[in-house]
Amino acid sequence: MNGEYLNKIIHGDTLQVLSVLEDNSIDLVLTDPPYFLDKMDNGWDEKKVASTKYHHVVKSLPAGMKFDKEQGKKFYDWYYKISKQVLRVLKPGGFFFSFSSPRLYHRMVSAIDDAGFLIRDCFIWLYTQNQPKAMSLNHFIDKLNEDERTKTNLKKQLHGWKTPQIKSCFEPIVMAQKETEGTFLKNFRKYNVGLLNTHVKIGQEMFPSNVVSTDTINQVVDKCFLISKPNKKEKGDFNLHRTVKPLSLCEYIISLTTYSHKAIVLDPFAGSGTTLVAAKNLGRKFIGIDINKEYIEIAKRRIKSFADYSRYNAVAGERQLKIFEEVGMDWIDEEYRKRQDGQRHALTQEQHASVNARYTRKGGCTLEYCCECGNPTGFAGKGDDSLYTEDNGPFCSECFKVPNVEVRSA
User: Fold this and answer.
1) Cis link prior to 394 (omega < 30° from 0)?
2) How would DSSP label each residue in 281-318?
3) pLDDT above 90 as % of the chain
4) Rounded (10°) angle between helices 349-361 and 330-340
5) Of residues 251, 244, 126, the one with CA closest to residue 201
6) Are the beta carbons of 168 and 130 closer than 8 angstroms?
7) For 52-104, where are the alpha helices, taking DSSP H only?
């Protein structure tokens, strides 16, 4: 039933679209839903959020700043329904990762918990680049029907004292799991999901952690938690989405939780498509849902523009290596011998990753690919098959065209 939706983004209301997806068919749900702060609910309107016309009380009050206890209640009721559908479509043992704001995280987790999930952990995305939201009361003092001397003294008295909105430097991400069928081993052998890949490393080759940082903070934090920073190319100059998540963060979670290249990653609030791009980069299948046509077009453009490359390909290779071990690995050794002899051989992306993982892990070398045609060029450090220019590479001999340069044929 899901076949018609694979590697596509569906335009529509999330609850309605989720209802047509097949039971027990999704490996991972990774999403960044509306946070249900002021104007950021399930009726999210990009123009309304960005506009200053609708701001409450103070003209400069940005979207998300108005405090209302009803927001949390509405968030819980709505996300409980979403979570029930997510529970249905996930395979037994499948994971559900969902971003939230620190203020309403408890409502989101309660909804997911009450829907039937096991709450496994809370991930923290740590960052430093954010604006303080606390406001001075001077504008209220100016409106008081009192003399100027009293107003001036009151401003001095309250100097530095602002509204209770501290600078936010993290976002929580719930890690929930659908219950397994029987033991972890039995469930994994049947569904290929439910365990975590500890080959995935974070920081300076550290064991995977529930704290992730995309900003350089200090030596200790960076060593344990730093992953690659987002860049302008990653987001795209054409991307108007206000809350784009780092690609490396989504890749980290997908690499940690999905085993096979047949795994399906679902994002029911796809936005500008970061989760979907990450899934594609890692060779996974994906399904996206969003109600905003403009965001869908942005997501499609981003997906099309990204090459099939990821910093976690080596990790994917380790994982694929274990799959191929079940049917023998003689073909990997044969491919290595062929590459040393300068022969070419067509491999799938997963097989390339497996060769890399096997020989890198043995202290050997890494198979390189032509940046033009994508064909393997040779093993780095073994022979002269791979060719470079000053600014680019590697190239295969067919694609390497620089005047007055001798090309050594394979």
Assistant:
1) yes
2) HTT-EEEEEES-HHHHHHHHHHHHH--S--TTHHHHHH
3) 53
4) 80
5) 251
6) yes
7) 69-89
Contacts of 19 (CB under 8 A, 6+ apart): 85
Tell whether the model's pLDDT for residue 298 goes beyond 50.
yes
Continuous segment of H or E residues that includes residue 378: strand 376-379
Beta partners for 289? Answer: 10
Q: From CA 39, how far away is CA 191, in angstroms rounded?
A: 40
Which stretches does DSSP call E strand in 127-259?
170-177, 211-213
Q: What angle do CA 133, 45, 246 make, to 5 degrees?
A: 60
The CA–CA distances, whole Å, from 213 to 124, 134, 185, 202, 306 equal 8, 24, 32, 10, 23
Instruction: Using the structure block, give the residue that is written with the tokens 């090459």.
Output: 307
Listed in sequence order, the DSSP H helices in 25-178 are 46-50, 69-89, 105-114, 138-142, 148-157
3-state class (DSSP) for residue 266: strand
pTM of this prediction?
Answer: 0.69
CATH 3.40.50.150 residue window(s) in the chain = 2-130+168-306
Spatial separation of the C-alpha atoms in residues 128 and 169, rounded to whole Å: 6
Position 322 pLDDT exceeds 90? no
Would strands 367-369 and 118-126 be described as parallel, antiparallel, or unpaired?
unpaired
Rounded CA-CA distance 176/108 in Å is 11
Residue 267 has pLDDT above 60, yes or no: yes
402 three-state secondary structure: coil
Give yes or no for a contact between 26 and 266, defined as CB atoms under 8 angstroms apart.
Answer: yes
Q: How far is CA 47 from CA 11, 40, 235, 297, in A?
A: 19, 11, 20, 17
Q: Which two tokens stand for residue 179?
A: 């219950």
Q: Quick check: helix, strand or coil at residue 324?
A: helix
CATH number 3.40.50.150 given to 2-130+168-306: yes
For residue 37, give the 3-state DSSP assignment: strand
pLDDT value at 244 more than 70: yes
- Which residues, 6+ apart, have CB-to-CB distance to 306 below 8 Å? 277, 280, 281
- Name which of 122, 96, 45, 108 is nearest 72 in CA terms: 108
